Amino acid sequence: MLSVIVLTFNEEKHIGACLEAVRAFADELLVFDSQSTDRTVEIARAAGARVETRAFDNYASQRNAALQAARGEWIFFIDADERADAAVAAEIRSEIARAVETDSAVALFWIPRRNFIFGKWIQHTGWSPDYQPRILRKGRAGFDTARPVHELVVTEGEVRYLKNPLTHFNYETLAQFRAKQKRYTKFEAEMMARQGVRPRWRSFLSMPVREFMRRFFSLQGYRDGVYGLGLSLLMAYYAFWRQVWAREIWDKQEPK
Q: Quick one: which of 59, 78, 122, 182 has the fewest CB in 10 Å?
């Protein structure tokens, strides 16, 4: 049995199309909602999904809770702004069936994503092929709560990679990009503090420069043209703020 899970918060714009795309190959549709204030829950129920609600604390804990609530042995996590086409559906079903038939120890499948940012397919700059750990075998894989953002999956079994990509309508506007990156960056700063990493003053300059060089040159952001340049600069900007916010946490913890 395959459960498809969508984590949501105020996703009325995307949830209907997302569920429609996975309905044909899902044995269970589960929308795991973080107390949305728009029509997300209403639309999800109208589409035939089971809806569970849980207050959001972090991404890893939210995914683990959803994993436990699912009824299937296999779980496919898809975001509301992602779409799975027929090729993705066929490959997921085929690979799961092969794993079951051969009594394989497969615990996790990674799947690539084709990211559209500001309306353009970003083929470099760190957003392609953008593999994500999304198809899990219940009881053999879960999310590491020490990584509250950009989740890490801990597995007891074999890991495989799929070929057909999800389409991800990632960021449509600059305001949306900034809001999400601010949230991610604050989570990352908190994680740094918990791990005992205290930013040095020189890192306020070195980390943004390193991030820009990595995105624009090592990850070939220049091949995405002005989009690659802009995204590399934006990610360098948030690398700077990650150091600032992590340092602020340290300063608050120090005895006066």
A: 182
